Amino acid sequence: MMLKKMIMALTVVVAAALVSCSNNHGTEPAPFDVDAMPIPADLTVTPGTEQATISWNYPMESMGALEEFRVYYYFAPFDAVELAGTTTDLTYVDTKLVGNVEYCYRVSAVDTFGMEGWRSGEECAVINTR
Amino acid sequence: MRKIVVTVLIALLLMSSAASTAERTEDVIKSVVFPGWGQFSTGRYTRGAVMMGTALVSIGAISGLTLQYNRHMDSYEEAARGYAQATYIGDAVEYYSQMTDSWNEADDTYRYRNIAIGVLAGMYVWSILDITLGPEASVSPVAMELRPDGFMIVKTFSF
């Protein structure tokens, strides 16, 4: 009688183990494989009369894979960005700005596959009036 | 896995036929239909209740965990689509993080569901083996006892 109970208990455990070990609901996600372009460095904003000149540095060895730079307005209170324009140079002139207003900018690089890299830190300047 | 289940079922059928009583076969069939039912028929109510209760809880857990698993997988697929279509590295990182989180949650849910399935399968096996190998019902749960002044309904509990 004892042996029968042991057989039963063992069977229950084996059955539970057999089912619970078959844990294969699909293949795991592939490792993260997106190569980002380097972040534009040394961003400077030079205020002009109702305009601003934004310039930055970028490694020469990464310029071959570059499609364009994207220059963004950055709104700190909302941590939001809005595209100001694009360029393939290391300088961008933003015109038709309002004087006595502080404008903040961030810049990113886009590769030839259309993948945009991390945006730079913001740089701000108060625009001159006429 | 299927081979194991088929082998166990054939073995049980052979064992039940070896028992060679129609009542036992009926009890085995009841246990095959739902764990614990056969035990109820043989008057072993406590054991039957434990088996049935555990089986019902397992079925509930399997249903709930299956729904949860499907939800996690839907979330994973949505994040995977976002990741594949991302054009900004920040979005790609965010979607990938959502993907791996959803995947891990789905993985855990799947494992718990398998354990619940294992417990249910175990209850079936225990119930059927218990009926097949255990003693036959020797006492009818409800019986009529004749007395000089009439008769009396006797209810017997057996554990």
Give your account of this protein's structure:
- The complex is a heterodimer of chains A (130) and B (159).
- With 130 residues, chain A is α+β, with helices and mostly antiparallel strands.
- Chain A contains one helix and seven strands; from the N terminus they run αβββββββ.
- In chain A, a hairpin with a 4-residue loop joins strand 3 and strand 4.
- Chain B has 159 residues and is mainly alpha-helical.
- In chain B, strand 1 and strand 2 form a beta hairpin.
- In chain B, helix 1 packs parallel to helix 5 and helix 2 runs antiparallel to helix 5.
- Chain B is elongated.
- In chain B, 33% of the residues are buried.
- The mean pLDDT of chain B is 84.
- The chains are: A alpha+beta (130), B mainly alpha (159).
- The interface between A and B is medium-sized, with 29 and 34 residues.
Q: Quick recap of the structure?
A:
Chain A has 130 residues and is α+β, with helices and mostly antiparallel strands. Chain A has one helix at residues 2-21; strands at residues 41-48, 51-57, 66-75, 80-87, 91-94, 102-111, 123-126.
Low-pLDDT residue spans of chain A: none
Total individual domains of chain B:
1
CATH superfamily of the domain at 41-126 in chain A: Immunoglobulins
Can you tell me the CATH topology of the domain at 41-126 in chain A? Immunoglobulin-like
- The strand count of chain A comes to 7
Using DSSP, what is the number of strands of chain B? Answer: 2
- How much of the sequence of chain A is in beta strands? 35-45%
Question: Which architecture of the domain at 41-126 in chain A does the CATH hierarchy give at level 2?
Answer: Sandwich
Count up the helices of chain B: 5
The main sheet of chain A comes to: 4 strands, antiparallel
Overall, the morphology of chain B is elongated
What structural class should be given to the helix and strand makeup of chain B?
Answer: mainly alpha
Oligomer: heterodimer
Quote the distance from N terminus to C terminus of chain B: 34 Å
The CA-CA distance between the termini of chain A, in Å, is 103 Å
Average pLDDT of chain A, rounded to a whole number, is 88
Evaluate the radius of gyration of chain A: 29 Å
